[in-house]
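Dig into my protein:

:::
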Amino acid sequence: MSESALQSLPERGDVFEPDGIIPEGPFSGKKVDTHVVRSLKLLSLSEAAPYHPEPGDRLVANFRHNDHWWIARIPDDAVQDVIFQQELAPPGRYPNGHAQIRFTMKPGKEITLIPQVPGDCQDASPIKDIIFSADGNRPKGVSGMACPLKGIEQAIVAYLLMSLDQKCKIMTENGKLHKVNQFKLPLSDEAEQEVLKTALHMGTRGGMHEMFNFLTRNCTTQAITVLDDSLNYGFISEVLSRITWNGSPNAIPFYLFERGLLNGRAMIPDLEREMRSNEPQLGAWPQFGAQPNVSTR
């Protein structure tokens, strides 16, 4: 963004920082650390206007990259690939898995970033890969549940949107990246755009006022719901998807299979292998088997 454009922005603090107050449960009234975790916010036309978006651009606040908050400018028709990721935590950790959705942008359609608070950080390079996930968050300094007798809803959901680089930093312990299985979904271009649209609307609508629930609203249920609200699987897969509990990150391959989204060899190299190798761009990987009967809703 040019210096003149930056000067035209309103002089303000971070107006898109949510309050992060837990609305109910044993931690009711306490605040999560919104300096490091926030739900994304798709800006309205009036909110986006000071940033001079191009026609078709979507501007999203609370995008995390390099440990800073940014306004992400997402071009129209930008998604090249949708990859469902299954993060596996080291043995002995709980929860031992996590679900998230990776979006890879088309060449020339990379995401550009604007500092959310002018002058807060240096300009960043365009972003090729982003991660969407729904994470449970407790108050700052609280790492575990209160007494289970106080209920299973003790955290609030944050709908996170961040760069792949930022997410890799979070998923790295003692210099080693967690195991992250990847499933490239065999979708049409229209369907890929719809999945991102649904994720952005889910995060904006949910904000930070929904309670995290290990059974009914967790990382896996919300990631699968993004797919279910975007895609039409055909009759049999629709029935199967509706009668199955979709809350276990360990069962992600099964959930994708029953929706017709495991197309032959949809599982691509895990994230660490991809980052260590010179694999071709994701969009260049071949499709195996017949295209499943999946369309947008």
The first strand starts at residue 41 and ends at 42. The chain has eight helices and 15 strands.
